Amino acid sequence: MQNFRFHNTTILDFGKGTIADLSALVPKDAKVLMTYGGGSIKKNGVYDQVKSALKDHQVIEFGGIEPNPHYETCMKAVALAKQEGITFLLSVGGGSTLDGTKFIAAAIPFAGDDPWDILAKGAPVVSALPVGCVLTLPATGSESNGFSVVSRMEPLQKLAFFSEQVYPRFSILDPETTFTLPSRQTANGVVDAFAHVLEQYLTYDVNAPLQDRQAEAVLLTLIEEGPKALANPTDYDARANVMWSATQALAGAIACGVPQDWATHMMGHELTALYGLDHAQTLAVVFPATMQHCRIAKKSKLLKYADRVWGIRGGSEDACIDAVIVKTEEFFRSLGVKTRLAEYGVTEGIERVGQRIEARGQKIGEHANLGRKDIDAILGLCAK
Fold it and tell me: Taking the domains of the chain in order of start, what are their residue ranges?
């Protein structure tokens, strides 16, 4: 097992009716900027619950944060927050709203010339405004970590940063807020969480059996509970299990002491930036192809994944690996998520993904050895 330091500071307030706890979780003297997306929270009752819980607080609203939050939109929120003297940010919505809010929190006190440098140049986040979260879409795991992904329209980029400064102070996780999610968003959430686990699990063995079994537990739960949540959107238990699995997928525990990959995510970010695909759609497309291309380097973990998660054992090692790659792709498709670029109308220009990653001087994968040729090969495998 590799050395690690684990410290997660987020309070996770889970269960029915927990939005009411906002009144105690948000400091009484805070001037709150409440951020949200396209307005679904006003249709499903979450907005009214939040406003009721914060009736004794000073709250200013900022809506319109996009899926794959735009830097340009976030900077409008930064300007508003500075103008109004905001002291606390409350994200109400899915992971994209929270990712955008984390960037806003870091950008407000940023002392450099351009807050985009946090993403593009790795400029350090020395301080940030405190952030809280009411989660309505389990997927990204952003509710319990310090990661944020933000897109910029000009130049066309989708980049990530990490800072301990932007861990949410608290996250409220009420499964009932997910009952009205469209099936596409539910399916995307399951795929996203599943892929997060695979990025930390499908690498190489470092004798970390506890972390392996924790990862396998999340994968098995998503396989069992994801289809239930799709089939019966108001199944509280299924929704609760999916929500908690998505949180655990990227809360840090299963990453302790093990190598991580994230190559699929980096390719996926480029596909989203270039073609506008949903984040989870890119993961469902690229992950099976990454597994195929890296089957030798990932051999021991692919065989463990085949055995422990999918019950594939017996026969040759190559046959087991072939079977588990097929099984993974079939699972994504069973949720209604396509797994080929051509199915999304992406038939030209995919070489730009490798070009853009190469232009940043990046080598990706758990061994940092996947370059332009590997990226082209992987995307070629999932093209049609």
Answer: 11-177, 183-381
Burial of 369 (0-12, 13-18, 19+ CB in 10 A): exposed
Candidate CATH numbers 1.20.1090.10, 3.50.50.60, 2.40.50.140, 3.40.640.10; the one for domain 183-381? 1.20.1090.10
pLDDT digits (tens, 9 = 90+) for 310-350: 999 989 999 999 999 999 999 999 999 999 999 999 999 99
Residue 208 has what pLDDT? 97
Quick one: 117 exposed, middle or buried, by C-beta within 10 A (0-12, 13-18, 19+)?
middle
Q: Locate 157 and state its tokens.
A: 């980029």
pLDDT tens, residue by residue, 34-73: 999 988 899 899 999 999 999 999 999 999 999 989 999 9
Phi, psi of 116 (to 5 degrees): -60, -25
Rounded CA separation 206/228 (Å): 34
Q: In the prediction, which pLDDT does 38 show? A: 85
Question: What is the DSSP-derived secondary structure letter of residue 62?
Answer: E
Three-state DSSP state, 70: strand
Q: Distance of CA 307 to CAs 61, 146, 281, 317, 321, Å?
A: 49, 33, 26, 11, 10
Pair 265, 213: CB distance under 8 Å: no
Contact, 271 vs 353, CB < 8 A? Answer: yes
Query: Is residue 155 very low, low, confident or very high in pLDDT (cuts 50, 70, 90)?
Result: confident
- Judged against a pLDDT cut of 90, whether residue 103 lies above it is answered with yes
Tell me the pairing of strands 131-137 and 170-173: parallel
Q: Cβ(188)–Cβ(281) under 8 Å?
A: yes
Cβ partners under 8 Å of residue 90, min gap 6: 22, 26, 32, 33, 34, 35, 50, 54, 59, 101, 131, 132, 133, 134
